[in-house]
């Protein structure tokens, strides 16, 4: 094993690292709150489509717009967090341990069966607004014909 000589960290470096990790966590928490909001509103609109005598398009059109907005918002959160984690992982190269990089190395899907692979939460959670979008699009198409 070779020993690597590390330069001393600038004063406050660890505090900046901790702040970066905390900010990434806050973005994830905000994304979860936003998803809860959109899921509640979308579910209510689906119920209203089936339970009211009002024209279905009156609920389906806003539902489709909200599904698209939700998907775009999740994409934005994912890109923002991705950038934050790139910064965190770059900062870790100066630290004695790199926990975030180690996690991603362990989750690397290379040489894993599909059942054993890690599917990113961002990918999975973006499926839900797509499903709602399809539901509302079908309702709109049905109304138009």
Would you mind describing this structure in some detail?
This protein is mainly alpha-helical. The protein has one domain. 74% of the residues lie in helices and 0% in strands. Helix 1 (13-51) packs parallel to helix 4 and helix 2 runs antiparallel to helix 4 (121-144). The N and C termini lie far apart (72 Å). The mean pLDDT is 89.
Low-confidence stretches: none
Shape: elongated
Q: How widely separated are the two ends?
A: 72 Å
How many structural domains are formed by the residues?
A: 1
Task: Based on the model shown, name its key terms.
145 residues, mainly alpha
Question: What's this model, at a glance?
Answer:
With 145 residues, this protein is mostly helical. The protein is 74% helix and 0% strand.
List the helices and strands and how they pair.
Layout: H1 13-51, H2 57-92, H3 99-107, H4 121-144
